[in-house]
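Colleagues,

Please find the record for the two-part complex below.
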Amino acid sequence: MKDKKIPLLEMKNISKDFSGNQVLNDINFSIQKGEILGLVGENGAGKSTLMKILFGMDEIRTTGGYGGQVIIKGEVVNFNSSLDALEKGIGMVHQEFSLLPDFSAAENIVLNREPLKPSIMSELFGDRMNSLNRDEIDAIAKTSIEKLGISLDTSMKVSSMPVGHKQFTEIARELSKDAKGETNPIELLVLDEPTAVLSEKEADSLLIAMRKLAKQGIAMIFISHRLNEIIDVCDTMMVMRDGLIIKHIPIEGVNVQDIARWMVGRNVSNSSKPREFDYTDKPTILDIQKLWVDMPGETVKNVSLEVKKGEILGIGGMAGQGKLGIPNGVMGLYQSGGKVVFDGKELLLNNPRSLLDAGLAFVSEDRRGVGLLLDESLEWNVAFTAMQVQDKYLKKYLKGFMTWRDSKAIEEVTQKYIDQLEIKCTSSKQKAKELSGGNQQKICLAKAFALEPKLLFVSEPTRGIDIGAKALVLESLRKYNRELGTTIVIISSELEELRAICDRIAIVTDGKIEGILEASKPSEDFGLLMIGQKVEEAI
Amino acid sequence: MKKITSKGIKSLIRNNLVTVLFLVICSIGIPLSGYSPSYLISEIIVRLSRNSFLILSLLIPIMAGMGLNFGMTLGAMAGQIGLIFVTDWNVVGIPAMVLAIIISIPISILLGQLCGRILNKAKGREMVTSYILGFFMNGVYQLIVLYGMGSIIPIKNTSLVLPRGYGIRNTVNLIGIRRSLDSLFNLSIFGIKIPLMTFIVIALVCVFIVWFRKTKLGQDMRAVGQDMEVAASAGIQVEHTRIVSIVISTVVAGIGMIIYLQNIGTLNTYNSHTQIGMFSVAALLVGGASVSKANIGNVFLGVILFHLMFIVSPMAGKNLIGQAQLGEYFRVFVSYGVITMSLVLYEMRKKRENLANAEKLQENQGALNED
């Protein structure tokens, strides 16, 4: 690195905590003009928080700001919004497209920065009555697309574009932001997983475009899970883990295996022993074939998976790769297709009721949305689905012509689970919304347990709850599996958690099962699967 | 043009089911009614001049993604208040109309602001909110016209006021401005009278709408209509833009109501405005518009088809079963039916498109896997 020059961006001693939870710890790095810095790390490593600090997002300020300094060309800055950052020439290309589908590429590129032609009406009613200068709009769009060195039809509507072109449109929009001369020219671009949704060919042309931009002196921070791309395009790379910079080195001589090890390689001693359970001779209870699910942000493309009776199967992988889509699709919450055979019978997809009838249950990752009736009592929450689906906790009169709720049975069963799961509440009549996150999660579990399912999907069971509650939730799942022999499929972003409780772990990458390993395998192997590298001895 | 295939025709019919249905109804009704073509054409021309302006007021909120603005009733009330005043002041002719418009505009702006602000609080439920808001404001209108006028607000002309001394009579004779715009320049082709001036005014509004789409504000509205979040993140003032679109709609509706009533010639003080929103919305939908997409062509096609049915159905009903009431019954029944059907069809089409997208995604994936 050219250490003598003043760096374009320097972040000094950056630290950040969210109410006591340290997510960034003494981060120091700098980036030069025209440098491409690769930034990698697991979910939750602190990458996005770091970028949010750089752009002065509200989220950072409302949670108590950050420690340390952000220095741009030798000047300490403190942005209040991404518009401020833009003024200093720092742009961001988002992971999800913020494009308007019915506008053309050009219209999207200049959105709200359209060059105008004055008209008589604007004298009366203000600038917004000026008409658009179509020629100039097109010219601006063309110049910024030229900078990328790609061919893109500026008059094409976004809705009819292939994904790659959408990504280019987004980047072109960032590049065009200096066109009116009101802001500094873009000097630093942050690209947050721009290739995640692209095909290989599209990704390649994006990488070429990036190199072209770098030659024009634009520095980039490139966040990606595709490590090969990082090696291909970056000058330097930085690995983050648990809020620390693990490595910050020039890219020469680094290989994918090294990066994977740095990303996941924890020095934690594996205290909880994997349990002894031989699944190999057990019958298959759930057979998923060629499943696809159209869940926004978690698209499943082609998943085939066998679940053995009585096992605990983990499904892991990076966020956005499709692991959450699997249970949501099988349980009919999102449009899906393919073949799912459960207990010898083929299931009717896209029909939650028939799936519940078949003996499947699902604890959703969306506790507050799908999981709970927030304004109702705990009793209602625990018993509701069982009442609806299985006619449990009901008293029948007049030969079943009239059914009444059996309040006593409901109270008993709720009390049973409150004791079993150690749910902290004033009584079983308390409203669900008054409980803490961890206890709400336990109520969700109790609700699923009350159905006494043959197979239970549990999605992100420990998201957003503290360590003590985590252990208890995991232990109760294990206990439930041990005592009743219920097959459990756990979907979680936390690999260590899966390794602690599961028999086997399937890793989902890019909407497909990348591989299934026994939980006792070293975490590096899982890390390689997550970034799309097959391991030889995958089962 | 696309090649016409049976599949293409099928999807064309499916996407314009309401329009096709009306074409069928009219093509059955016209021979049954026994009306001559020249009578039908002259009737249609009258209806076009009478209703088009009102319906054009619906276009801009649709562009801003706010759906069908049932709140145009508010503008109609403003227009009627303007007409009551000019009638009281004994102004006649074109000056009377201009004066009525001048009175209505500030009231429309005020009501439009109110409506826009309320709709901003009810994002995603604009249509039902504006519909109910119309009912609520009808109460306020009645309070002002039935109790306020003649007592607090001075009304000199006794023929306007109820015998008890305050409140406006049920019907106001608009003799002073009747047909004043329509008969300004009259053109007669093959014995069919064409109110040229009215059509010129309507054409001006069309030009305004076309031009408006090309302005910065129009572009912002289209952006807001597609995705409020994206628009906001680009720095567009979403809420303000939405309010402006409703204000414009309300003002245009107010002027439209004045044009409508100068053609009719009498003001039904407590009823004229109540159904105007519904009939306008229904006509626009018949013309092939949807909750999220409408253009000027939809307006004229809608007026022609919707009113053709009104014209022919009483006579067709009389010839068919000996009762003319069938036509009146049809009018209300069909209007509600059209709106319901369009809304249901719109949702169904959206669902179908989502499904098609999901399948396309799957196919693409399959192709990728084969590579």
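Chain A touches chain B through 30 residues (CB under 8 Å).

Comments are welcome before we finalize the supplementary table.
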